Fold:
Amino acid sequence: MFVRIVAEPGSSAVNETGSWRAEVKPKFLQQNCIACRLCYLVCPEGC
Structure:
């Protein structure tokens, strides 16, 4: 059984999605690196 869900237009502006990234910039810590390469996906510097 499939349920189709359509969000209301403009709902992301009301819910303020993405604000979690606006204030805190991720930091690379070499001692915590396990070479998973996930930082490549979110790096603002363009790794």
In short: The radius of gyration is 17 Å.
